[in-house]
Please model this.
Amino acid sequence: MKIALAGKPGCGRSTLFRALAGSVDADTGKPLTVKVPDRRLDFLESIHNPKKNTHASVVFFDVPSPSFSTKNLALIKNAAVLTVVLDNYALGDTINDFREIESELILNDMALCEKRLARLTKESRGTSREAILLAKLLKRMEDGSPLRILGLDEGETGILAPYALLSLKPLIVVSNRMGDPVTPDDALSGIVLEHCGTLLGIDTGFELELTEIEENEQKQFLESMGYSSSSLSRLIKAAYSALDLIVFFTMGKDETRAWPIRKGATALKAAGTIHSDLARGFIRAVVIPYNLYYECPDKILLKEKGKLSIEGKDYIIKDGDIIEIRFNV
Ligand SMILES: Nc1nc2c(ncn2[C@@H]2O[C@H](COP(=O)(O)OP(=O)(O)O)[C@@H](O)[C@H]2O)c(=O)[nH]1
Ligand SMILES: [Mg+2]
Model:
């Protein structure tokens, strides 16, 4: 999963990037791949002691200034989630900056939709499903609505997917140095909510300083300042939630592994995520909810107690399910 970090010059984007990298020397010109921290996976690893423990990962990009130039927009288009950093520590006016950036995204989307619509009209396809949709979207964008607030259905987002429209991307707004938790009466929080974004307060300067001290002291420091967890954890959690992702696990002597998957995915889909053979030859899934396994990390005992669920291909995967696919190819 790719997450773009964008914002106005001096907003603290690179400071956040370095804090996420856990190093003041991190090269902001390169994508940063980080493991998704997961205590549940750590527990599974401690039980199985496997040859390999595979975390889910995310990739952060620091989109250079100006973040919304044509050249840099390509970087944002490439990302699954757009994170906009707002300067709330120095002279920044977060509400004004947010509005400006949002307009930038909308204007870019409008230009693209207009171009595409003109082309469809020229090819006498002005009454096609796509053309009608584009005309509808343009009308809303003219009124200042970003596409992510329109509640488009799957068919519509499917039509739009090739255009990677910016204001349709899941949005996380980082108010740099606003403190945590975000106060609900804050004007910015109201606007971000209206725009269907997720607002996080992150003190990027403080988080970067934290990377300089011992790891076990970091947690204590965070808590003493009233932060629930590191900016990395909070950003990833927000991104997973914005993308409707949950996690299931597989475990064994060779590998314990976390697999992100869309909420609502079936056991068959999960099987295919692991390997296409598992989907092709799917027989059934053996499912153990993580909490059950945490309390009794012994599969044989769980089986004797009748606690293993045997599920078919239409079973809906739940967050934290530990699954084993029985298959035959
Ligand atoms: N005190 C303080 N300084 C910050 C914070 N975030 C950024 N800065 C400073 O603001 C300047 C610009 O930050 P930088 O991350 O390079 O901005 P960018 O242009 O968005 O990449 C740097 O001198 C940072 O040290 C913060 O949360 N607190
Ligand atoms: Mg920078």
The domain at 264-327 is CATH 3.10.20.30 (Ubiquitin-like (UB roll)).
